[in-house]
Design a protein that fits this description.
With about 70 residues, this protein is mostly helical. This is 3,4-dihydroxy-2-butanone 4-phosphate synthase.
Length: about 70
Amino acid sequence: MQEEIDELGERIDGLRLVISVLIAEMPNRYEVMAKLQKAEALARQRNLPTGVLQELADLREALDDM
C-alpha cells in the first residue's frame, strides 16, 4: 500500500512539472498564474481539503521557480 502511495506522489510531482512547463510557455502565462493565485485564495475561503490547497500552492511555487 505504501509503495502505491509513493508512486502516486511521484506521478503527481511529474504532472505538476508538466503543467508548470505548459503554463510557462503560454502567451498569457501571467494571467493564468494570477488566476491560479485567486483559485488558491477561494479554495482557502471555502475550506477545501488540505490536499487541494497544497497542490495549488505547489503548482504556483513550481511556476515561480520557472
